[in-house]
Amino acid sequence: xxxxxxxxxxxxxxxxxxxxxDYYRFNREVLKTQGKILRYDEYQTKSDNRKQxxxxxxxxxxxxxxxxxxxxxxxxxxxxxPVGRYTDVLYKKGDEGNARLAKGNGYGLGxxxxxxxxxxxxxxxx
Length: 126
Prior knowledge:
This protein is an alpha+beta fold. The chain has one domain (3-125). Helices cover 36% and strands 40% of the residues. It has a 5-stranded antiparallel beta sheet with strand order 3-2-1-4-5, with helices on one face. A hairpin with a 2-residue loop joins strand 4 and strand 5 (95-101). Keywords: Membrane, Transmembrane, Transmembrane helix. It comes from Neptunomonas phycophila. The chain crosses the membrane at residues 6-24, 106-125. This is DUF3592 domain-containing protein.
């Protein structure tokens, strides 16, 4: 038994499960409306001496005469929706400030973490 891959696998599996649960919980309770991409907040990340430009969308949507401007908590490697275009926005009633773009609201990252966890756990056990 190798402890390091086992621990890494359990951690990755836990993170992946949390991401999937969070998306499931959010998507079960949301309402959908149209919002407009206002701009992107651009920043640099550095990993293994490589810089990558990431983009965090800032969008607005209106409900019952109130306009909400939201900075996405999710970053992307490109402009997923062009500035000025309308796109689907998901929000919870009473928590409009935590709205999300429907386009970036998927289970993929959680599945990736679980996919990485499986071989790590296997290597840790066998």
